[in-house]
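Hi there,

I know you've been waiting on this one. I reran it after we fixed the sequence typo, so this is the corrected version. Both the input and the resulting structure follow.
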Amino acid sequence: RVDLAIAVDRIATHDEKVRGRLEGKFPGGIIANFCCAAARFGARTGIITAVGDDEFGELSIGDLKKFGVDLSCTVVKSGVETYFCVIYLDDSGEKALTIVETDALMPAVQDISFDYLKRARFIHMNSLDLDLARFIVSNSSDLPGQLSIDVEPTAAGGGLEDWSQILEKMDIVFINEQAIRQFLSDDLFSSGRELVRLGPEIVAVTCGAQGVHVFTREESFRVAGHSVPVKDTTGAGDCFNAIFLSCLSRGFDLRRATEYANAAAAISVGSVGARSGLPTEQQVSAFLARV
């Protein structure tokens, strides 16, 4: 997808007009951002995705190539527009986001190559398409890699009943504070433990500037957020997830992986655009050495 970032003094409410300034057209997308962040950190990544044969599709593919993401399973749909987001950024750097859906929102079931997935140590998916997630999970028994999912608040709106059979097959669940409250309750700690009881080995609950809570069957802990200048929070969660899995793949223990991912996300919000501020491993290490 492509993100149209618009700076405003404040987010408009109902029946209100505000003036805005286009900050730029930035390549985006949950899994695309994830792959680029992991690649920037030094991991080998590939993506199964769909784009249209339009200007936004070319921009999306070009940026993925720049980061070195493997595109052998990318589908370009003829005569279809690439989906995009309109993102409003106020002075705090927080966002209001509208997804403009097209027929290239997600890959189709027939686009999923399980031979390709068998090559991966980690298989990360989003929660935009419940049926697609079900299809992948129902055919995952022969996949050697660990499964992870990024659960968005829009998915939580469907209720835990819709997602329980998917979540119980996951090795790692990433979910933000808003989504876990919608799924379960306002008690973040009991909700985190309940998600672990469904089946995942690790549940990471991201809380924006407040940091992250991590739950396993054996322990739970919190890593505090960092006080940093914020220009744009778009993609910070994708960056966190990517660095978290990248660190686990290198043998980092759980707490150290969380600290690195938390720091990487903090660095990423200092630039406008989901990928503009993605850090290298050296930059994350230097950041942690200063705090």
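Quick highlight: The radius of gyration is 18 Å.

Best,
R. S.
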